[in-house]
């Protein structure tokens, strides 16, 4: 199964659900390679069925379009972020549109949320991640994959950021997390409580693949031991289907870090599940 045939990528051929590659790879600090994520996910999707037994849904049942990858300028961080925000605004020009973004590094979530809060001021962001990403700056840079949720939180209303699966961060980051999220950080045991707190508010899911233990997914730029299993990831994704999900991203896949392709295959399956959820929401 390949997700779908790619259209021209000009954002002129929108469907009810849209898949977009954002090969951002400007601030990765340990192992680069996220620019190859979208291509690798598409390639390994060939090994998957279009039907999900967990969701009892099939990609063939929905109108889904693959818009290709944004042609981001190499090394042009400011311009790249602006292009992402403009693309997302265009993607949501129709009331019922939904999207899944394939990254690319995690900083891409910032311009996405910046566009979406203009549409949904009460937007909630649900982050599945190994890292808090709540630093105000990283090695002197304000915009980084390590600061993305600090800036995302500043765009949101109070109690609108929920971080699950976290197992890494500085002392200051953990203190900040407890200030902005009572009970944080959250593990999978607290996931039903998190979903209850989110309720029916419009929700954006940001899935950093390093939430998965590197024994299951070594192909990421900042692997962190002690993560969840691949099965736990897919169970969590199925629970997310209960939310008023308006969009999502899958980020931090670094294919060069896993020549076996197992990480890309797992990422492709996660994208398939999320496309199906988006299809069900848009129906």
Can you describe what's shown?
The chain has 283 residues and is α/β, with parallel strands linked by helices. It has one domain: Arginase, Chain A. Helices cover 33% and strands 16% of the residues. The protein has eight helices and nine strands. The protein has helices at residues 37-44, 77-91, 109-119, 148-155, 171-180, 191-198, 230-240, 262-282; strands at 17-22, 51-52, 57-58, 64-69, 98-103, 124-128, 161-164, 202-208, 244-251. A seven-stranded parallel β-sheet has the order 4-1-5-9-8-6-7. Strands 2-3 form a two-stranded antiparallel ribbon. Helix 7 (230-240) links the parallel strand 8 (202-208) and strand 9. Helix 1 packs across helix 8 (262-282) and helix 7 packs parallel to helix 8. The longest helix is centred in the last third of the chain and has 21 residues, at 262-282. The radius of gyration is 17 Å and the shape is globular. It starts with 16 loop residues before the first strand and ends with a helix. Mean pLDDT is 92; it is low at 5-9.
Alpha-carbon distance between the termini? 22 Å
The major sheet is characterized as: 7 strands, parallel
- Return the CATH architecture: 3-Layer(aba) Sandwich
Cα shape: globular
Unreliable stretches (pLDDT < 50, length at least 5) are 5-9
What is the H level of CATH, i.e. the homologous superfamily? Ureohydrolase domain
Query: What's the rounded overall pLDDT mean?
Result: 92
